[in-house]
Design a protein that fits this description.
This protein has twelve helices and eight strands. It is an alpha/beta fold and 348 residues long. It folds into two domains: 161 residues, no CATH class; 176 residues, no CATH class. It has a five-stranded mixed sheet. A three-stranded mixed sheet has the order 1-5-6. A hairpin with a 5-residue loop joins strand 7 and strand 8. The longest helix has 21 residues. The chain is globular, with a radius of gyration of 22 Å. The model has no long low-confidence stretch (mean pLDDT 90).
C-alpha cells in the first residue's frame, strides 16, 4: 500500500485554515469557557481502531496536557481512513507499506515495523505541520494567549509531543501540589475524574518529569481511595483501556526488558478495586472484560504481565463464585484462566 504523509500534511494545513476561519462562528467544542482565550491547542489522532484526526481548542485558564481533549473527539474529528487501512494492511494482513514522509523522502515499512514506529511517523508529521502553521502565523486569527501551548497526542498513548518544557517541582510537597491541580473547586465526581486523568498521564508516559514522579501513582490511588466506591467504575474503565497492551517492552529469552509506564498505575488501580467493597454487576462485567483482554495480550508470551492474575484476584475477592487464581511461579501466567471464562458462561 502507498501511504503519502506529504499529501496528508496538505489536508491538515487546509483543515487548520478552516478551523481558524470558522472559530468565531460557532460554540467551541473543547474544554473551558467558550468566551475565554485559547490556552492550549491539541491535535489528537488514531490509526489502529479507525483513522481520524481532531483539533481541540482548550480555553481553561490552567489548561494542561491531561487527556481532557478525549471528551471532545466526536465534534472535532475528521476521517483519514487511509491511516487505518495502512495499519490494517501492515499489522493484520502482513502487507508492506511504501511511505512518503512530510519532507518527500520515501521508505518501506515491513514486518519488523512496530505500532509505535508507525504512529510516531504520523505523529511527527502532524507535529511538523502544526509548528509550521504556528510559525507562519496561521493561528494569529484565533484568540490565543501569549503562552498558548501546542500538543500532539495519539489516542492510545503510542505517541505524544508538546512544545511546553516544564521543570519538575523541587520538593515532594510542591510535586503533590502540582498533582492536586484545581481540585478545591471540583465536585467529588470531578475529583475522581482528575485522579483518573493523572493515572492516564502516568500510563501514557506523559507525567511531568520530576525526582518525585515515581510517587505519582501511589498518591493518585490514595486520593481515589478516599473518594470511596464512586471511584471504582471509572478506575476500571481506565484499566480496561490499557488491558489489551503488553506490560513489558520485550519478552524472554531477551535478558533485559523493562516495564512499560502503564503497568504500575493499572496494577495499583486493580489493588484499589480488590480492597473495595464494590461488587456490582457493572464491576464484575468490567473485570471480566479486562481479564479477557489481558489474557489475549499475553497469549504466546514467555513471560506474562501480572494484570490477568490481579484481575482474577479482584473477581475471586469481590464475587463468591470465582475460584482462587493460580499463578505460574516462573511465567506469571494465570494457570486456571479457563475456569474464569467458564464461570462467566455459566452465569449467563
Amino acid at each position: 500500500m502507498q501511504l503519502n504523509l506529504r499529501k496528508a500534511s496538505k489536508v491538515l494545513r487546509k483543515h487548520i485554515a478552516e478551523r481558524v476561519r470558522d472559530y468565531p462562528l460557532y460554540v467551541n467544542e473543547g474544554p473551558g469557557s467558550d468566551a475565554a482565550p485559547i490556552k492550549q491547542i491539541t491535535v489528537g489522532y488514531q490509526i489502529d481502531q479507525a483513522g481520524w484526526l481532531a483539533i481541540v481548542f482548550d480555553t481553561r485558564p490552567h489548561a494542561e496536557n491531561d487527556g481532557k481533549w478525549n471528551d471532545f473527539i466526536e465534534p472535532n474529528a475528521i476521517d483519514l481512513p487511509e491511516w487505518h487501512k495502512a495499519f490494517t494492511d501492515l499489522f493484520h494482513n502482513g502487507k508492506p507499506i511504501n511511505l512518503t514522509l512530510f519532507d518527500g523522502t520515501t521508505r518501506r515499512l515491513g514486518e519488523d515495523t512496530t505500532v509505535e514506529q508507525l504512529t510516531e511517523l504520523i505523529g511527527t508529521t502532524i507535529r511538523d505541520v502544526l509548528i509550521q502553521a504556528r510559525d507562519d502565523g496561521h493561528f494569529t486569527g484565533l484568540p490565543i494567549t501569549t503562552d498558548c501551548s501546542y500538543v500532539i497526542e495519539e489516542h492510545d498513548g503510542y505517541y505524544g509531543w508538546s512544545n511546553r518544557i516544564e521543570a519538575g517541582p523541587q520538593s515532594q510537597e510542591a510535586y503533590f501540589a502540582e498533582l492536586e491541580g484545581d481540585l478545591p473547586s471540583s465536585t467529588k465526581d470531578g475529583h475522581v475524574e482528575h485522579w483518573v486523568n493523572v493515572l492516564e498521564r502516568i500510563a501514557s508516559g506523559k507525567e511531568n518529569e520530576s525526582e518525585w514522579s515515581f510517587l505519582a501513582s501511589d498518591y493518585a490511588i490514595r486520593r481515589l481511595k478516599e473518594l470511596g466506591d464512586r471511584a471504582i467504575v471509572p478506575v476500571l474503565k481506565f484499566v480496561r483501556k490499557w488491558s489489551g497492551k503488553p506490560e513489558f517492552d520485550g519478552d524472554r529469552p531477551k535478558r533485559k526488558f523493562n516495564e512499560l509506564p502503564m503497568q504500575t498505575p493499572t496494577i495499583n488501580a486493580l489493588m484499589l478495586v480488590r480492597e473495595s467493597s464494590c461488587h456490582t454487576l457493572e464491576v464484575e462485567s468490567l473485570l471480566r472484560d479486562i481479564l479477557r483482554r489481558s489474557i489475549k495480550a499475553n497469549d504466546g508470551r514467555k513471560l506474562w504481565g501480572i494484570m490477568p492474575v490481579w484481575t482474577a484476584r479482584c473477581l475471586s475477592t469481590l464475587f463468591e463464585h470465582y475460584p482462587n487464581p493460580i499463578q505460574h511461579e516462573s511465567t506469571n501466567a494465570l494457570v486456571n484462566h479457563v475456569e474464569y471464562t467458564n464461570q462467566a458462561r455459566t452465569k449467563r
